[in-house]
Specification:
Number of strands of chain A: 15
Strand content of chain A: 15-25%
Distance between the termini of chain A: 49 Å
Oligomer: homodimer
Order of helices and strands of chain A: EEHEHEHEEEHEEHEHEHEHHEHEEHH
Structural class of chain A: alpha+beta
Number of helices of chain A: 12
Largest interface: A-B, 98 and 98 residues
Number of domains of chain A: 3
Chain lengths: 413, 413
């Protein structure tokens, strides 16, 4: 047997950075109380630290917090939450980065949501909740309401997630990555749909437009044909892989592919995926000093060709600098717009482009966000997406679980 | 290309049977108001009809309702819900049967929860909610709180589900079913774990003990060896299937299998799975006139061997008539106890066996119910499973969404 199944592993998110913010300064007594929980070195009110925690990779302007706290364990998180709850101080969790790249697992392993079995959550009042019961990690359950699913993707607005139990999948016996360049966006996305229709069990399938490929070639020293491209990965036994590759190649040829080349060795594969993972920075490097603005729509697979082709045309017509990249196996793709934050007119154009794209996804029965979340930027689109009743139910859930409205305030709703 | 991917289909649950119940009789005016919504022929207060809707396949004794209503469309469900809400009349949805056999999809396609993309729900006050937004059916989303996951498995206690959008999977190019008899329960379950560890992409894997096999042989005219047995199904291309079968057979031989035979033709396969689906009635036929009592635990795959072997020993020691059958690819299995409902001592023994099994699953980090739900029978085990904080959050969610407590009252919590 080639591989070992470990059904689950529990991992901690510590050390993580949490920060407390509210209108106006925190009292000296309150800062002392924070220090009493986590120790002096783990609380900061220094201007540089506050500034550093006052923005993220997005183009949205955020207020810096009044204090930054680095709790060392879940008990401290719980005591901090109770302290803030009693004093009415809002909490905004701040991670170390984007973390899980759920999007890279297309079709074969499911999305991140499908692979979270249990969460440890500190509730706003400081109580500790294990969404599936403490220590549990089973494959399916009908035991009461699905609290795990409610907290996944809640963007820190219902409580502070301090640990997650994830489902692991067996390491495949063999892995092959492939790249394939196409004469058009249409040909690349038609290939994606055909591969899924043919039930070829592709492990990853990623689309990059020619602007993105050009940027990756420069930033990550690749030597790919500058054309709309698919990156694919196949997992399985050696025999199964040979068959999968053959079927995938036949489909790419049917759609007029310019080439189809595969990388069997781990080093070559890793270089390819490292380039894909660095695509954000490759795009930013197209205009040094500018900021990235990412869209995140997801549509039913059957609507993917029309939205990708139309979006490519719109992007070219907009005059914006932008690349396209997507986890197309899920129907999800991003435009990374590279925008001068000082140019108000350009910023408005980027916002209009992103809003129009979100609305187009909604019209095609899709969602305005497959992965990134609502945050501040997509609250209006969320209302259009789920409707008045859906928003009202979400508001009620938020009010029930966070009655003082202190958890990542103003986000999502 | 061998198959067609249709990303989703929307199907209605109509006609379904709903009934209204409360302590004491409904007023004549209220019955007239129900008739005004759905039409005279779709409301009944006849004693025989009430009696027929006063019990299910379980051993739990239920009160018959005061009226049975057959709404014809979602607008009528909505108007009925508003009527009952205003008058404080509880509603208990009553389906046409168990419907989805989520358990038969092990490892390969995920559980039912993973395959529900959207739900149409009539809320207690009569409002219509589309959990993912009206008409939407995308593969993944980060748009607000996951309302779909909250309603799946809520057992009618939060609202009335009137339609579901499901993810469909491509029809495989070829399908093969196999049966394999083993000298012991241990050998059969070790084989299950080994097949999953080896990442053989088995589509279904079902365990039946020798008592269940004997019952199926009689009830469904099978001719299987009377021994602990696995039913397996493989999906894929012809070439991939040959490899999967070979690997599975090697693993069964390694574990001392008595035989391994496979059925390629649809008719033979269908006979096998029909027998499996009729296992409940095959078990009941072991003691005509008696009632079935099913357990439903689910544990991490790694703990499956010890719980199955121990449960088999306990079942034999208990003196109860019972079979074992399970969707072991998910870690989920059932004991079907066949009990004389007039024999209070035997009933108590069956309840004690089921409770002990539930607690053993909890001790192994599992759940007391993988599929059947909590209902009335497992409310105590649910408290042990999710803990005081989990129960309190579930109570708050119930109180928020069903403030008058009219949706399937007393179930789950």
């Amino acid at each position: 047997m080639a591989s070992l199944l470990r059904a689950t592993a529990t991992w901690g998110l510590f050390p993580w950075r949490g920060y407390c913010s509210r209108q106006g300064k925190l009292s000296k007594d309150f800062v002392e109380a924070l220090k009493a929980v986590v120790g002096n070195p783990h609380v900061s009110t220094a201007a540089a630290v506050l500034q550093q925690h006052g923005h993220d990779e997005s183009i949205h302007r955020c207020q810096p917090p009044d204090a930054v706290v680095w709790p060392q364990n879940v008990e401290q998180v719980s005591r901090l939450a109770a302290l803030c709850y009693n004093q009415g101080v809002p909490i905004i969790p701040f991670g170390t980065g984007t973390g899980l790249e759920g999007g890279v697992c297309a079709v074969r392993y499911g999305t991140v949501r499908d692979n979270v079995l249990n969460l440890e959550v500190v509730l706003p009042g400081g109580e500790l909740l294990h969404t599936a019961g403490q220590g549990r990690h089973f494959r399916k359950s009908a035991a009461g309401y699905n609290l795990t699913g409610l907290f996944v993707g809640s963007e820190g607005t219902l409580g502070l997630i301090t640990a997650a139990t994830l489902r692991l999948h067996p390491v495949p016996e063999a892995t092959v990555a492939a790249t394939c360049a196409f004469p058009s966006v249409q040909a690349a996305v038609d290939t994606t749909v055909n591969i899924l229709q043919a039930a070829v069990p592709v492990a990853r399938i990623e689309f990059l437009d020619e602007v993105m490929i050009d940027a990756c070639n420069r930033h990550s020293n690749l030597n790919c044909t500058v054309a709309p491209t698919l990156f694919l990965e196949f997992h399985g036994s050696k025999q199964a892989l040979a068959e999968q590759l053959q079927r995938a190649e036949e489909i790419t040829q049917y759609n007029g592919a310019l080439n189809f080349s595969w990388a069997k060795e781990a080093e070559e594969r890793n270089q390819l995926w490292a380039a894909r993972h660095n695509a954000w920075y490759a795009a930013l490097a197209l205009r040094p000093g500018c900021k990235g603005y990412a869209t995140d729509v997801c549509v039913p697979i059957s609507r993917l060709p029309e939205i990708l082709v139309q979006t490519k045309e719109d992007l070219q017509a907009s005059g914006l600098t932008g690349t396209m990249v997507g986890h197309v196996g899920d129907g999800n793709f991003h435009c990374v717009l590279v925008v001068d934050p000082e140019d108000a007119e350009e910023l408005r154009r980027a916002e209009a482009f992103a809003y129009q794209l979100g609305r187009r996804a909604l019209a095609l029965h899709g969602t305005c966000t497959g992965e990134h979340g609502i945050g501040l930027g997509k609250r209006k689109l969320l209302q259009e997406e789920v409707g008045a009743v859906g928003i009202e139910i979400m508001r009620q859930l938020k009010a029930t679980l966070d009655p003082r409205g202190l958890m990542n305030p103003s986000k999502v709703l």
